[in-house]
Specification:
The protein is mainly α. It has a domain at about 105-405: Up-down Bundle (Rhopdopsin 7-helix transmembrane proteins), CATH 1.20.1070. Helix content is about 65%, strand content about 5%. The chain contains twelve helices and two strands. It has a two-stranded antiparallel ribbon with strand order 1-2. A hairpin with a 6-residue loop joins strand 1 and strand 2 (about 265-270). Its main location: membrane. It is found in: Cell membrane; Cell projection. It is a multi-pass membrane protein. GO terms for molecular function: G protein-coupled peptide receptor activity. This is G-protein coupled receptors family 1 profile domain-containing protein.
C-alpha cells in the first residue's frame, strides 16, 4: 500500500474517533440534566415537613439538622393538640399543674360547685358566730365565770379549725392538690382530733360545773371566779386534748400519684406511719392506729354523751326538790343548754364512727375519699352550728349579741339624728340609771 493512502486512512480514523467522543459527552450531559429535573419534581411532590413535627423528631441522625432540636412533651398517648386545649391541666412548659374541677361544666364540676358553696356558707356562719361568742365573753365583765370561759374556749378552737382547716380541705377537693404538702397532711388531722378532745372535755367540765353550782350555797347560777381558777380549768382541757392528739402527727403521710392519661399529680393523705421512725415510737404509732377506731368511739363519742346525760338527770332531780323557783328555772335552762350542745356534737361526730366501723368490718367497696370528705364536713358543720345554738338558746349571750348589733346601728344613726328640723344640732345628755352590784341585769349586755 502506498504511504499516501495509509496517511489518508489514519486521518479519517482520528476524525471519526473525535466525533464519537463529542457525541458521548453530549448524551451524558443530557442524561444528567434529565436526572436533575426528575429529582426536582420528586422533591416538589413530597409533603413538606414542619419543624418540630413527629417525622422530623423521629430522625436518628441529629447531625444533619441545621437548627436546634425542640423539647418535646412527655409521651402520654394523646395528641399534642388535645393536650394543649385544656390550659387548666397543663402549663406552657408541659409540666403538671393544678386541676380545675370547676371547668368545664360536668357532673364533677357540679359536685365541686356544691362543695364550694356549702363550705362558704359554713365558713361565714362559723367565723361570725365564734367571733361573737369570744368577743361577748371577753368584753362582758359579768361573764367572767368558768361556764362562759369554757364556752369561749370551745368557740376559739372552732374558729381556728374553720379558719385553717376548711380552706385546705376545699382546695384539695377542687384541685386534687394539698396546700403545704406533707405538713398539712399532719397538722389538719391533729387539729381535727384536738377539736374533738376540746369539745368532749368541755362538755364534761360544763356538766361538773352544773353539779357544783347546784350543790353549792351560792345564789348566782354562774358565779364570777378569779382568773387563776378559770385559766386552770381551761388549761387542763386544752393541754389534755392537745396531748392525746399527738399520735395523729406521726400517723399521716402525703401520697402523690401521677395520672397515666393527663400526667397531672394528685395528692392524698394516707394513714400510714413512716418506717423511718424509731422502733419504739413506730410500734406505739401502729398500736394507736389499730386502736384508733375504738378510741374515737369510746373517748370522743360515748364519754361526752353518757357524762352529759348523767349530769342532766342528776341536775334535774336536785333542781326539782328546791324551793327557789327562779334559781331552779335558771339551773334547768343551763342544763338543757349542755344537753343541746352534746346532741349537736353527737350527731356531727356519728358519721365518722360509722365510717370507721364500715371500713374495718365490712368488705364493701366504699369510696374512702368521699367518706373522709363527709366526716370532715360534719365536723366543720359542728363548729358552725355550736355558736348559733348558744346565741339562740342562751339568753345572756343572745341579749349581748343583740345589744352589740343595736349599738352598731345606733352609732350609724347618730349622725342622722344629730340635727333637728331647723338644722340646729341637738345635744343629748346621758341618763345615769342607778344600779346595784347584785343586779341581775348586769349579766345581760356588753360595755355598749
Amino acid at each position: 500500500m502506498k504511504p499516501s493512502s495509509v496517511l489518508f486512512h489514519s486521518f479519517l480514523f482520528l476524525i471519526f474517533f473525535h466525533f464519537s467522543n463529542i457525541k458521548n459527552s453530549v448524551c451524558r450531559e443530557g442524561s444528567l440534566r434529565s436526572d436533575a429535573v426528575q429529582k426536582v419534581k420528586q422533591a416538589a411532590d413530597k409533603p413538606r415537613v414542619r419543624r418540630g413535627s413527629e417525622r422530623e423528631g423521629s430522625k436518628k441522625d441529629a447531625g444533619n439538622l441545621v437548627y436546634p432540636r425542640l423539647i418535646f412533651s412527655p409521651t402520654t398517648g394523646l395528641p399534642d393538640v388535645n393536650r394543649m386545649q385544656n390550659d387548666s391541666s397543663q402549663s406552657p412548659t408541659w409540666g403538671p399543674s393544678l386541676k380545675n374541677s370547676l371547668y368545664p361544666l360536668s357532673e364533677n364540676s357540679l359536685s365541686a360547685y356544691g362543695v364550694l358553696v356549702l363550705s362558704l356558707v359554713v365558713f361565714a356562719v362559723g367565723i361570725v358566730g365564734n367571733l361573737s361568742i369570744m368577743c361577748i365573753v371577753w368584753h362582758s365583765m359579768s361573764m367572767k365565770s368558768a361556764w362562759d370561759s369554757i364556752l369561749a374556749g370551745v368557740a376559739l378552737w372552732d374558729f381556728l379549725l374553720l379558719f385553717f382547716c376548711l380552706p385546705v380541705v376545699v382546695f384539695q377537693e377542687i384541685t386534687h392538690r394539698r396546700l403545704l404538702g406533707d405538713l398539712s397532711c399532719r397538722i389538719v388531722p391533729y387539729m381535727e382530733v384536738s377539736s374533738l378532745g376540746v369539745t368532749t372535755f368541755s362538755l364534761c367540765a360544763l356538766g361538773i360545773d352544773r353539779f357544783q353550782s347546784i350543790t353549792s350555797s351560792q345564789v348566782s347560777p354562774r358565779p364570777v371566779e378569779p382568773c387563776q381558777s378559770i385559766l386552770g380549768k381551761v388549761s387542763v382541757i386544752w393541754i389534755g386534748s392537745l396531748t392525746l392528739a399527738l399520735p395523729e402527727i406521726l400517723l399521716w403521710q402525703l401520697n402523690q400519684e401521677r395520672s397515666p392519661v393527663s400526667g397531672i399529680i394528685s395528692d392524698s393523705c394516707l394513714m400510714h406511719p413512716s418506717p423511718d421512725q424509731l422502733p419504739a415510737l413506730h410500734s406505739l404509732v401502729l398500736t394507736y392506729k389499730h386502736a384508733r377506731m375504738w378510741w374515737f368511739l369510746g373517748c370522743y363519742f360515748c364519754l361526752p354523751l353518757l357524762f352529759t346525760m348523767t349530769s342532766l338527770l342528776v341536775t334535774l332531780r336536785i333542781v326539782g326538790n328546791t324551793k327557789n323557783m327562779k334559781n331552779s328555772q335558771c339551773h334547768r335552762q343551763l342544763s338543757w343548754i349542755v344537753a343541746g350542745l352534746a346532741i349537736v356534737y353527737g350527731v356531727c361526730i356519728l358519721p365518722e364512727n360509722i365510717t370507721n366501723i364500715l371500713v374495718a368490718y365490712t368488705s364493701l367497696d366504699l369510696p374512702e375519699n368521699l367518706l373522709t370528705l363527709i366526716t370532715q364536713f360534719f365536723l366543720f358543720l359542728k363548729s358552725a352550728v355550736t355558736p348559733v345554738l348558744l346565741l339562740c338558746v342562751s339568753k345572756p349571750l343572745g341579749q349581748a349579741f343583740l345589744d352589740c348589733c343595736c349599738c352598731c346601728c345606733d352609732e350609724e344613726a347618730k349622725p342622722a339624728a344629730a340635727c333637728n328640723a331647723d338644722g340646729n344640732s341637738v345635744r343629748s345628755e346621758p341618763i345615769n340609771l342607778p344600779y346595784s352590784a347584785n343586779d341581775s341585769a348586769l349579766q345581760l349586755g356588753t360595755p355598749c
